[in-house]
């Protein structure tokens, strides 16, 4: 199981808050989220409202950082935003975070397993992705 790449990213949340205040969270979400992530975002937005300083910002920030880290780990493969789907830890089932790359075309290259870790504290979100070939 050779490791093909490691990617990391750190996001300063105030930068994202500024972006969302200019463009709106719905437009940003539509641009970067996969269809599965977008459905989750829309449910969260209904529950939370447009609170860009709270849970919605964290949800979008984690996915942004994870996808940036995935691009670095997968290089020279260049997935689109929507080809990478992140699912966070599920406390009810104990399932740890997962990251899946579903390319639109069959040129996925050798990376067929991604490992992900994301952490957030205060104004920062950190993500790490390891791309592996089995």
Detail the topology: elements first, then pairings.
Elements: E1 3-12, H1 13-23, H2 25-32, H3 35-48, H4 55-74, E2 84-87, E3 98-101, E4 113-121, E5 124-132
Antiparallel strand pairs: 1-5, 2-3, 4-5
Helix pairs in contact: 2-4, 3-4
Q: Termini distance?
A: 5 Å
Q: Main sheet: which strands, in order across?
A: 1-5-4
Tally of helical segments: 4
What is the gyration radius calculated from CA atoms? 15 Å
Q: What would you call the shape?
A: globular
Percent strand:
25-35%
Low-pLDDT stretches are none
Rounded mean pLDDT is 89
Q: Element order, helices and strands?
A: EHHHHEEEE
Major sheet: 3 strands, antiparallel
Question: Helix/strand/pairing class, anyone?
Answer: alpha+beta
**What fraction, in percent, of the residue positions are helical?**
25-40%
Compute the number of strand runs.
Answer: 5
How would you explain this protein's 3D organization?
With about 130 residues, the protein is α+β, with helices and mostly antiparallel strands. Helices cover about 40% and strands about 25% of the residues. The protein is built from four helices and five strands. The chain has helices at about 15-25, 25-30, 35-50, 55-75, and strands at about 5-10, 85, 100, 115-120, 125-130. The strands form two sheets. Strands 1-5-4 form a three-stranded antiparallel sheet. The protein has a two-stranded antiparallel sheet with strand order 2-3.
Search tags:
single chain; alpha+beta; 40% helix; 27% strand; 4 helices; 134 residues
Compact description:
With 134 residues, the chain is an alpha+beta fold.
């Amino acid at each position: 199981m050779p490791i093909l790449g490691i990617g990391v990213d750190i996001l300063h949340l105030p930068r994202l808050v500024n972006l969302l205040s200019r463009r709106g969270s719905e437009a940003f979400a539509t641009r970067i989220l996969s269809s599965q992530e977008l459905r989750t975002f829309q449910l969260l937005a209904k529950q939370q409202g447009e609170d860009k300083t709270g849970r919605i910002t964290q949800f979008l920030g984690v996915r942004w950082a994870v996808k940036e880290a995935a691009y670095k780990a997968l290089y020279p493969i260049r997935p689109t935003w929507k080809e990478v789907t992140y699912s966070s830890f599920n406390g009810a089932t104990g399932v740890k975070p997962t990251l899946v790359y579903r390319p639109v075309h069959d040129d996925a290259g050798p990376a067929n397993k991604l490992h992900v870790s994301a952490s957030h504290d205060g104004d920062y979100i950190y993500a790490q992705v390891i791309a592996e070939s089995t």
